[in-house]
Design brief:
The complex is a heterodimer of chains A (about 140) and B (about 140). Chain A has about 140 residues and is mostly helical. Chain A has one domain. Chain A has six helices and one strand; from the N terminus they run H-H-E-H-H-H-H. In chain A, helix 5 crosses helix 6. The termini of chain A are far apart. Helix content of chain B is about 75%, strand content about 0%. The longest helix of chain B is centred in the C-terminal third of the chain and has 24 residues. The radius of gyration of chain B is 17 Å and the shape is globular. Classes of the chains: A mainly alpha (about 140), B mainly alpha (about 140). At the A-B interface, helix 1, helix 2, strand 1, helix 3 and helix 4 of A face strand 1, helix 1, helix 2, helix 3 and helix 4 of B. Chain B: It is a multi-pass membrane protein. Chain B: One of its GO terms (cellular component) is plasma membrane. Chain B: This is YeeE/YedE family protein. Chain B: Keywords: Cell inner membrane, Cell membrane, Membrane, Transmembrane, Transmembrane helix, Transport. Chain B: InterPro entries: Sulf_transp_TsuA/YedE.
Chain lengths: ~140, ~140
Amino acid sequence: MLRLLLAALSGLIFGLGLILAGLANPAKVLAFLDLAGLWDPSLILVMISAIGVSAVGYLWVRRRGRTLLGDPAQLPTARQIDRPLLLGAVLFGIGWGLTGICPGPAVVLLGSGASDALWFVAAMLAGMLLHDLWRRRA
Amino acid sequence: MSIDWPHFTPWSALMGGLLIGLAAAMLLLSLGRIAGISGIIAGLLLPQRGEWPWRLAFTASLLMSPVLWQLHSPLPVITLGTSKAMLLIAGLLVGVGTRMGSGCTSGHAVCGLSRLSPRSLAATLTFMAAGFLTAFLLRHLL
């Protein structure tokens, strides 16, 4: 129960952070991605403070070797920089550049009542499912 | 390049980032999991044993965050100036791309870079470059 509450609290704080940072507004993200236009550098500051705080949490967990609830931390183990990683990043970057929407803000947009976000989220879920089903078969 | 000073919002950007970082640190410290939104959501689609509840709790409260925000103050302006067809295409690309590339802006750029993961750095540089290039093509060449 405590785990579920903490997971819910993380999701909530994450979403409030996205809204405060302006990331729930695709126009603001596109203004950051459009280097050649009128450039809004705000997103860089979002990244810097997010990475800074997250790094403290990571270092803490790494020093303890487990979580505060006593579980082992489940950190990614993959190391190789391979073709799926880079090709996937290219596909994701194109989708992001077309709309200014990435997965977290997509969910927040949906919750904010922006009904058009449903098209994006439905296609995103379909894409995820297609990829994972295809990889499960392979 | 010219900076759009009137729309530059340094303080809300820094504070928003702080909350995002706090949420990622909290999930790692409490559940030992990486706050990669694409991974958390994808795990809801093809669930494994014991994985569903925390992912659902996280995603549901992410979805509800704008509702809670609105109890306190109006949401900031949201401009979604993209056609439905474009939203569908982009959503599909983001869905397939984040799964193939094992992460998105949260998992690779925030969590990965804070762990100094070379793999996440490569992914972040790649999707940023693709994003910059796509925005450039769309706004200045087409």
